[in-house]
Inverse folding.
């Protein structure tokens, strides 16, 4: 099927079966014009001469969902154009001849809703079916909350919606969502047509009218209790999961038609709410972040990257090795001696075993992954590696020496990567013959779990090397954000003021536990003191010193963390930091007050300030926004939205708030400047002095995300 400029629906006939092919590259999203075309083609069909209808996607995907850009326009108040998807699907379901959905690759969101309005579903083995709307702060809005429970039961349906996780064709078949799985994708259409002919004599059954999979009595109560507790476990501070459950319940209690009406009203409510706008912003920001001008718009010769070397098997190196093994890559890990090699191997094995314990992979898969790991105490083992990732101790001389040796050992085309979180990468490349192939890939700990990788290029790094690093991130299913070289790179630099201002607030009388609760309630996974305990206070103090000296003119450092570290309270790993730890649980400790008092004494007993909870949130986050504006001004990021992507993926900033710049833009750039100025005047902190860039953006009336 040739690619088309505008969404189209092609109609063809194989004897008495009509085939409608939805054609809207790249993923057949249900754009307005596609809906108009589908509506029209369906009306034009003469069903009296038809035995069945097959709906298929052009290219290799069925339909990846409603058009998210259209949803974004609707959310900002634009009137909907074209037929309503819900009405269109009801008409398909009401067809007098059976309609069969032929699904390859993705049937997601509106795509699965379309497939469920068809009377049967035939899918390729590689197909994935899901309702990921909650991942966008929405709920299914075209019958998904009604038809899915009727097809596969309430518990499985609710789980698919609340987790946003698609299922594969085999699982969908087991659960009754798919009627036939086709082995070879090229046979999809012919097998769907044959299937349609076979089932055609039976009158088509509408999913919306089915009752056989819906539980009743105690079984229903249990299913709904489990659904509500899953929603409570996965989400906080947001209404959309509850709206989704309400729509499911309404359909069960009042019937499918009433359920559709409730679903529609709840969908519209979710669409207008802040989380949907924030999460849709992130959807597009994440895709934009993969595009790096001068890199991803160019073609480079394919660079081999199947064999990877990792230097250093500590927590970071082992985590990186695990992430690589999880992506089926061949890994050679180099450590200083045989004991360190064994320790690294055990660490990696432990990480992989945890995935087995959690049921994510089988023991056979785990064994296969571990078999792809070799270890050596000799750098010569890196001779045949396509990429070498250095994750040694944060010591400039050591890293420089390592890279010099590796340059002489590995092939001339091997990519040289450092995982440093603090050291100037240009400095590491200073003694290399070919610094063009050196760059940073800053993984976040634990590296096999956290999605973010900062890809750091120096002024010497060649675009082909950046392209290869981005390809590697894709293979690892990581979220890459490409940044320039500066102390702290992106995330650690924008979050530097967050930690500093947390210390400032504590020095000014805010209790650490109160501060943690306020930031947790805002939506952070944990407050700043708890994070500091988790990362290691000793590590934080060392990294803080590097950042403080790099940005000395605006650094504020409370003595509290150093006092705790000096007393051996270096965080969770030592059983004590700001909190005490018992079996991994953080417990309040009255002894902390003495350290807080000592820190305040060292600062000359500054007057205690009264902070409303909202002031604390603004203080800490505006420090972040101010530093983010410096990063934009310095050209460290390709575009401002990259900051939101990185902070959500790297710091667990709540996605339903869209990242610090989206959060700031909801208040408006002038508010940001005024509020920063207010804090800067009140506390006389250079850190809070609004940047010239911010002031210019505010006076132009531009959102921060739109300012380059
Ligand atoms: N609406 C509008 N555009 C969409 C879209 C949708 N539902 N799904 C994908 N796209 C666009 C992307 O923005 C991207 O555009 P770009 O090339 O201009 O950046 C392009 O299609 C390719 O998508 P991408 O995500 O880069 O491709 P992929 O192969 O990595 O992933 C999917 C494919 C389908 C898994 C992924 O795009 C996806 O999850 N889409 C959204 C599914 C969804 O949430 N549907 C429910 C909507 S309510």
């Amino acid at each position: 099927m040739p690619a088309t400029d505008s969404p189209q629906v092609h109609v063809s006939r194989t004897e008495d079966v009509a085939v409608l092919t939805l054609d809207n590259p790249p993923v057949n999203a249900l754009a307005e014009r596609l809906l108009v075309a589908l509506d029209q083609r369906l009306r034009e069909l003469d069903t009296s001469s038809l035995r069945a209808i097959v709906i298929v996607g052009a290219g290799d995907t069925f339909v990846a969902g409603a058009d998210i850009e259209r949803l974004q326009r609707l959310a900002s108040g634009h009137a909907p154009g074209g037929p309503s998807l819900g009405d269109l699907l009801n008409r398909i379901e009401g067809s007098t001849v059976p309609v069969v959905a032929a699904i390859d690759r993705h049937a997601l969101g509106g795509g699965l809703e379309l497939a469920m309005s068809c009377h049967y579903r035939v899918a390729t083995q590689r197909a994935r079916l899901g309702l990921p709307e909650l991942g966008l702060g929405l709920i299914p809005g075209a019958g998904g909350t009604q038809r899915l429970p009727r097809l596969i039961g309430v518990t499985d349906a609710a789980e698919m919606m609340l987790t946003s996780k698609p299922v594969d064709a085999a699982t969908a078949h087991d659960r009754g969502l798919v009627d036939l799985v086709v082995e070879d994708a090229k046979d999809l259409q012919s097998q769907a047509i044959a299937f349609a002919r076979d089932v055609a004599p039976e009158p088509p059954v509408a999913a919306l009218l089915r009752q056989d999979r819906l539980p009743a009595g105690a079984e229903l109560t249990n299913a709904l209790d489990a659904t509500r507790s899953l929603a409570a476990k996965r989400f906080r501070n947001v209404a959309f999961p509850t709206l989704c459950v309400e729509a499911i319940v309404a359909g069960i209690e009042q019937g499918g038609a009433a359920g559709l009406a409730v679903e529609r009203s709840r969908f519209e409510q979710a669409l207008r709410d802040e989380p949907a706008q924030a999460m849709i912003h992130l959807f597009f920001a994440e895709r934009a972040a993969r595009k790096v001008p001068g890199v991803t718009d160019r073609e480079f010769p394919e660079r081999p990257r199947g064999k990877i070397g990792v230097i250093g098997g500590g927590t970071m190196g082992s985590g990186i090795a695990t992430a690589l093994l999880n992506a089926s890559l061949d890994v050679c890990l180099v450590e200083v001696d045989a004991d360190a090699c064994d320790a690294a191997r055990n660490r990696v094995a432990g990480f992989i075993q945890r995935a087995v314990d959690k049921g994510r992979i089988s023991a056979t898969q785990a064994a296969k992954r571990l078999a792809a790991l070799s270890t050596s105490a000799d750098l010569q083992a890196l001779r045949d590696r396509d990429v070498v990732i250095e994750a040694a101790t944060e010591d400039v001389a050591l890293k420089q020496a390592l890279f010099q040796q590796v340059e002489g050992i590995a092939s001339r085309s091997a990519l040289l990567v450092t995982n440093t979180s603090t050291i100037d990468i240009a400095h590491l490349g200073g003694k290399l013959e070919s610094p063009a192939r050196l760059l940073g890939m800053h993984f976040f700990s634990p590296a096999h779990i956290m999605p973010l990788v900062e890809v750091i290029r120096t002024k010497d790094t060649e675009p082909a090397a950046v392209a290869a690093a981005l390809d590697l991130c894709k293979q690892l299913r990581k979220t890459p954000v490409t940044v320039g070289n500066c102390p702290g790179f992106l995330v650690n630099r924008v979050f530097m003021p967050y930690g500093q201002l947390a210390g400032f607030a504590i020095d000014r009388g805010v209790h650490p536990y109160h501060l943690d609760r306020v930031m947790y309630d805002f939506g952070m996974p944990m407050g700043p003191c708890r994070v500091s305990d988790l990362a290691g206070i000793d590590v934080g103090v060392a990294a803080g010193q590097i950042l403080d000296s790099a940005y000395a003119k605006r650094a504020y450092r409370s003595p509290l963390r150093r006092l705790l570290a000096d007393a051996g309270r270096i965080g969770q790993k030592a059983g004590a930091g700001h909190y005490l730890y018992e079996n991994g649980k953080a417990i309040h400790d009255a002894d902390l007050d003495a350290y807080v008092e000592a820190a305040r004494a060292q600062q000359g007993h500054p007057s205690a300030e009264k902070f409303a909870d909202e002031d604390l949130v603004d203080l800490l986050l505006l420090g972040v926004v101010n530093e983010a504006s410096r990063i934009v001004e310095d050209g460290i990021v390709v575009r401002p939205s990259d900051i939101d992507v990185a902070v959500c993926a790297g710091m667990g900033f709540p996605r339903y708030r869209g990242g610090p710049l989206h959060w700031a833009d909801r208040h408006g750039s002038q508010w940001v400047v005024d509020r920063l100025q207010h804090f800067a005047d009140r506390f006389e902190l250079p850190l809070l002095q609004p940047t010239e860039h911010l002031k210019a953006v505010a006076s132009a009336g531009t959102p921060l995300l739109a300012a380059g």
User: Anything to note?
Assistant: Residues 26-27, 29, 64-69, 106, 108-110, 132-133, 136, 138, 287 surround coenzyme A (CB under 6 Å). The radius of gyration is 28 Å. The longest helix spans residues 613-633. The domain at 493-706 is CATH 1.10.1040.50 (N-(1-d-carboxylethyl)-l-norvaline Dehydrogenase; domain 2).
